[in-house]
Amino acid sequence: MNITKTQILTYTTILLAGIILGWLIFGGTHDHDDHAGHDHASAESADEVWTCSMHPSVREDGPGSCPICGMDLIPAASHEREDDFSMVMTEASIRLANIQTAPVIRDLPKKEITLPGRIAVDERRISYVTAHFEGRIHDVKIDFTGAPIRKGEVMATIYSQEVVSAQRELLEAHRNRERSPGMYDSAVRKFKLWEFTDEQIQQIIDRGEVQTHMEILSPVDGYVMVRNVVDDQHVMEGSVIYEVANLDHLWVTLEAYEEDIEWISTGDSIEFKTRSNPGRTYEAIVDYIDPTFNPEKRTIRLRADISNSDNRLRPDMLVTGVLSAEQSEEKLMVPVSSVLWTGPRSLVYVKDTDAETPRFMVREVDLGPRSGDYYVIEGGVEEDEEVVFNGAFRVDSEFQLADRFSMMNREPGTGAVPAGHDHGTMDHDDHADEMDIEPFDDVPEDFRSKLTAAIEAYITGKDALVESDLSGAQSGFNAFIDKLNEIGEHGLSGDGHMAWMESWSALMEHAEGITAADDIEEARTHFRHLSDDLIKAVQLFGIEGVVYHQYCPMAFDDEGAYWLSSEEQIQNPYLPETMLGCGEVIESIE
Fold this sequence. Notes:
Elements: H1 5-47, E1 50-51, E2 74-75, E3 86-88, H2 91-96, E4 100-103, E5 105-107, E6 110-121, E7 126-130, E8 135-138, E9 148-149, E10 154-159, H3 161-175, H4 181-193, H5 198-207, E11 213-217, E12 222-227, E13 234-235, E14 240-245, E15 249-257, E16 269-274, E17 282-289, E18 299-307, E19 318-326, E20 331-335, E21 340-341, E22 346-351, E23 359-364, E24 366-371, E25 374-379, E26 386-390, H6 392-401, H7 428-434, H8 445-466, H9 470-487, H10 497-515, H11 520-541, E27 547-552, H12 555-558, E28 561-565, E29 584-589
Antiparallel strand pairs: 1-2, 3-23, 4-26, 5-20, 6-15, 6-19, 7-14, 8-10, 8-13, 9-12, 10-11, 12-14, 15-18, 16-17, 16-19, 17-18, 20-25, 21-22, 22-23, 22-26, 24-25, 27-28, 27-29
C-alpha cells in the first residue's frame, strides 16, 4: 500500500498529540500525587513525636536511635488530653516497657510477723520453800543453784527452839490422846501448818523423843532456781530458803512491736526456733497478751505454753518466733509492686478494660497494712479492676511527660512539669520535693552518721559487684547488715519511727538475700531491690556527704535498675562485663 506524504504527516500529528495527552494525564498526575503524598507524610511526621521506651525524656520529630542507649525510637503515646487522670498508650510502648497488670482481689489479709523472745519459767510452777519459824540452818544438802531435786528429798536441816517445844507437846498429847483427843489433834495440826509431812510427824511419835534438827523436804520435783541459805545461817519466820521450779512446762515470751498489735490475738499459732538448734521448729499457741505497753521498747509481751518433757529448752534461751496472723474481715488487696508510694500519697495505675485502645487511669488510694506480697487498699479501687504491677514507673513517666496527674505532678495541666526528667544535680531536699517525698526534719545526727556508715559498706559491696566478685560483695553486705544492726529496727523515734522500721526490715531482707546468694546474678537481683529501698531511705532521712543516684535502662532485660555510688562516673554493677559505662546520674543527694 502506497502512503502519501499527507498521510504520514497526519499519523505523525496524531502520535505526538497522544504522547502529549498521555503525559498530561499520567505523568502530570503522578507527579502531583507524589508531591501530595510527600506533603501528607511530612505533615504526619511533623505531628508525630518519637521517643525511647527506656528514656521517655527523649523526644524526636522522627524515627531514629536513642542518643542515650541506642535503642530504636518508637512513636510516643498519644497525648490528646481526655482528662488529667488518664492517657492512651501505644501497643508498642506497652510491649517494650513490659507493662503487666493484675486484678484487684478481695481476700483475708494475712501476715507473718517475726518476733524476738526468750524461754521463761512458768511462774505457776514455782514452789517456795519457806521458814515457818525462827531457827538456824544446819547441814545444807542442796548447795548450788540449778540442782535437780525430787519431791520429798532432803534440802537442809534446821534447829528451832519453837519446834523442839512443839515436839514435846506432841509427844505428851499422843500419850494422853484417849483422854484429850482435841489436844492431840491440835498438836498434829501445828506441824502440818509448818508443812511437815505425815511421815515426819509419825517418825517423831515412833521415836518417842525430841529431835533437835528437823529435815526440810522439797515439796515438788524440779530444779533449784534460787538458794538463799548456807550452813549455820540464822533465818527468820517467813524467810524464803529455796525456790524450786518444775521445768516440764515452760513459757515462751515474745515481744510484738506497736504496729503489729492489731494483727495479734489469743489463739494465734506461733512457730519458733532456738539458736542452739535452729533446725528444729517448736509450735505453741498464744494464750496471753499483756494488757500493759512497754513505752521504752514500744512493744507488748505475748505468752505461750510449751511442753518440755525432753528438757531441751532451758529458761532464758533466746528464740525467734513467727506468728501467722489473719484478719477476720476480707479486704481489697493489690500487689506490692503496683503501689507507687511517695510518703504522703500512694498511687496505682488502673487499666481501662473497656477501652478499644490501651488506656490507663491514675488513682490515689488509701493504703492499708502490708499482707505478704500485697497491700491492703482501704479505698480508691474496686474489686477485679486491673492494676499495673510491672512497669508502673514507666506508665508514671508517660503521665508526667504528658503533664498529667502523676507521682511527681500534683498540678496537672499547668505545664509545671517539663517533658522529661531533670537529671541535673540537686540537693536532697529539692529532690524530695520533686518526688513528693517529705524528708523528716527530726532525724538525729547520730542516726545519720550510722546510716552513712551503712551506705559506705553498701558501696563496698556494690564495687565488688562491679568486679563480679561474689565473695567480696557478700563480705561487704555482711558489714552492711552489721551497720544496720547497730542502728536497730527502732533506731528512730518520733515521726520517722514507722518509716524507718519499714525501711530497716526491707534492707535487712535484701541484704541477707545477697549474703545467701549462690551466684552473682542472684546477688545482683537482691542488690536491685535493696538499692530501691536504700535510695528511698536516704531521701527520707538524709546522709552525711554526697552520694550519686544512678540508673541503667538496659539492666534486667531492659527493665532498668538503680543504685547509689560515691563516684559520679558510671561503673555499672549490673552489666560490668558488657556495659560497664551504661547509665546516667539521676541526681546527687547531699
